[in-house]
Amino acid sequence: MIPSGAYRCWAEIDLAALRGNLAWIRHRVGPHIKIITVVKADAYGHGLKQIAALLMQSGTDIFGVANLVEAQAIRSVGRGWPILMLGACLPQEVDLAVRDGVMPTISSLTEARALDAAAARQKKIADVQVKVDTGMGRLGVAVADAVDLVKRMTALRHLSVTGLYTHFASAEDDRAFSREQRRRFDSVIEALRAQKILPPLIHAQNSAALLHEPGGACNVVRPGLLVYGIVPPGRRRWNKLADVHLHPALALKCRVSLVKEIPRGTRLSYGGTFVAPKKMRVATLTAGYGDGYPRAASNRAEVLLHGQRCRVLGRVTMDQMLVDVSRLKRVRAGDEAVLIGQQGREEITAPELAAWCGTVPWEILTGLTYRVPRIYRGAHAA
Ligand SMILES: Cc1ncc(COP(=O)(O)O)c(C=O)c1O
Q: Which long-range contacts (CB under 8 A, 24 or more apart) does 211-218 make?
C-alpha cells in the first residue's frame, strides 16, 4: 500500500458537492419529478460504487447505466433500486437482464419479444422502457412506428412497459432542433394517451435539456453531467445561470518531480514540438495520458501551481508532462499541481481542459484511468 501522500496522480472527489448538486437538481425540478441519475462509465470517472451509495442516500429515484456490469456494481451496493439500461440489450444479455431485474431499453419488436421470452422462461414479468428516436439516430423506434410498437408490446404477457423516453441530440446548442424533437416526442405521447396505453414514466431531459428545455409532459429527468457539478458547455446560454448552484465534484492532481533551468533553444519532450525561446524554468509533473490527462493538451493547456496558471510545454507523455514555471521561483519537487480543480483563487474546470483539447468534459472525466486513485472527501466518505 502506498500512503495517499505519495500518490503521483490522483482524483479527489467531494461527496458533499455531489450531494449538493443532486439537491439543486431536486430543487429545480420540484418534488414530484423523478430523477434518473446517470452513472455510466464509472459514474463519469468518479467511481461507480461510491457514487451510487451516496446517491442512494441523497434522493436519486432510478439509476441510468450503459450495461449490465454497471448494473451489477450498483446492486452490490444496495438492493432493489430501479436501474434503466440506456444501452440496447444484446441477444446475449436478455436472460441476465431479466435475472438481475434491470430495465432494458427497447427499440424494436424483436428486442421486446426476446425479453418477453426470457421473462417467460424465468416465470417473471420484466420491466422495460421504450425509446423513441426523435432525432438522435442511435437507439429507439422511429416516431411513425412508436405507437404500434407500444400497442403490440401490451400483448406480450411477460413484459411491463414502465417508461417511454427519448434523447436530445443537441440540447446545449440548437434550440430549434430540440423543439422539433420535443414536438415529435409529444406527438407520440398524445397518441398513446388517446389510446390509454401511455407508460407511467416519461422522460427526455439530459443535463442540457434540464437547463434549456421545458419539461412538458415528462415526469422524470435524466441528468448526468449536472450531478457531477458541471454545466454542459454549448452555444445556448441559460439566462438563469446565476441561479445554478452546482460545484464540480472532481479535482485531478499530481506532483512536481523535478525543476530545472533550460537555456534558450532547448527542445522539450517527444518530437521537440516546443523549443525554448529564452532561458526558462521548467517543472516535470507526474501525470500523463496513461492517467487520462489528454495528449491533445500538449502545448495548449494550463495547470495550477502555487495558485498560478502554468502552460503545458511540449507533448504530454504517458506518465509525465512539462510546464513553464519561469514566474514561480519557489516551486520544488513534491509540490502539488492541479490539473482540474481549484488552487488559491484560480480554477481549471473540466470544460476548460476539454476546450483546450478539442473535446467535451464527458470525455475528459470518463477518460481518467484505473491507475488514478479516487480519494473521497466530504459527506459519507468511506
Ligand atoms: C440516454 C442518455 N440519457 C442521459 C444522459 C446524460 O447526459 P448528460 O451527462 O449530458 O446529462 C446520457 C449520457 O450520455 C445518455 O446517453
A: 211/238, 211/244, 212/171, 212/172, 212/175, 212/178, 212/236, 212/238, 213/168, 213/171, 213/178, 213/179, 213/182, 215/29, 215/33, 216/182, 216/186, 217/186, 217/189, 218/33
